[in-house]
Amino acid sequence: MSDWRVRAVRASKRPFTRPVTPAGAAVQPAPEHSMDPRPDQPAEPVSLERSVVDAAVYRDGHRVQSAANLADVYRELPGKPGTMAWIGLYRPAESQLLEAAERFNLHELAVEDAIVAHQRPKLERYGDTLFVVLRAARYLDDVEEVDFGEIHLFVGPDFVLTVRHSQAPDLSAVRRRLETDPELLALGPEAVLYAVLDAVVDGYAPVIAGLQHDIDEIETEVFGGDPQVSRRIYELSREVIEFQRATRPLLEIMRSLEAGFGKYGTDEELQRYLRDVADHATYAAERVDGFRQMLQNILTVNATLVSQRQNEEMKQLAEAGHAQNDEIKKISSWAAILFAPTLIGTVYGMNFDTMPELHWAFGYPFAIALMALVCTSLYLIFKRRDWL
């Protein structure tokens, strides 16, 4: 066994290894989002058939064998022109993928990426085998969220090995489409690569429509003053960034494929199909870039509106405080004016025999005049200070 396979087998003790379904039991696809760390892998060898969704041999665009086991697939390939095998795996265990790698002579780095998963979209060529990583996306209407999946493709001269780590995209639909078009399927493994690329890119259209709807709703909420809109903008921005990470590298993948059209003798009709996918991918990437800019603008507008509302509230509070101060001034002024005659009346009401002017004939008018003079003076002072 080669050194890299020894390292990979030792790595099977890592926590991302999945348990193996018992022999004869039906394989139930796990939910698309349940890509959690996996328990330890049993030490005994595991048959590759356990993770096979579909395996078939095609000759000149027609399905000639639906293999009961992969040994039959391998026997059909060598030395038979126009023959191609397409094997689809769904979340295979590490030992299962290593078995496929040994039979198809796959490069160790590509196999490692397929085992670990969580890779960015990319295209790499190892000899005569292409390794392609794609990120699929679908819009979940019930929760208004974008769900992302991952698929790895090994495209060789006479085989295609697809490794799905999520339920989307539905490659069974891709397989049915190609089987109904033998002329396209007869173009070989590159036709399968085109069909998968086309399915992934076509799956972006509902996501774009869903995100556009969410952004329209957010704009309404922003101008409606919804206090929860900032959180929704943040969550949607994260989805758009993740979507951007899926679409932007796809453009480089399509450019790399187009650059190899002449060198690798890609069929002219297939070139047209791939260019069409590239156009759709470019459109999707541009829309996603636009969404990100729109959300940044909406976030800025929301912050401005929140600031304006806060300023209005502060202004209203300041006006209310100013009005309250005016009322307090008026009340205090009138209280001072009324306090003056009360003080004078209190002094004169003590009835002491030795008080000045107590027996004076003009004592009463003098007291009244003094009260009036003090009140008038205070009134004029407060009026001049604009307290009244």
Explain what the structure shows.
The protein is of the alpha+beta class and 388 residues long. Helix content is 56%, strand content 14%. The protein has helices at 3-11, 70-76, 94-104, 108-116, 171-179, 182-185, 189-202, 204-224, 229-259, 268-348, 363-384, and strands spanning 52-59, 62-66, 83-90, 122-126, 129-140, 145-155, 159-164. Strand 4 (122-126) and strand 5 (129-140) form a beta hairpin. Helix 8 packs parallel to helix 10 (268-348) and helix 10 (268-348) runs antiparallel to helix 11 (363-384). The longest helix has 81 residues, at 268-348. It is rod-shaped and about 145 Å long.
Strand-helix topology:
Elements (H helix, E strand, L loop, with lengths): L2 H9 L40 E8 L2 E5 L3 H7 L6 E8 L3 H11 L3 H9 L5 E5 L2 E12 L4 E11 L3 E6 L6 H9 L2 H4 L3 H14 L1 H21 L4 H31 L8 H81 L14 H22 L4
Parallel strand pairs: 3-7
Antiparallel strand pairs: 1-2, 1-3, 4-5, 5-6, 6-7
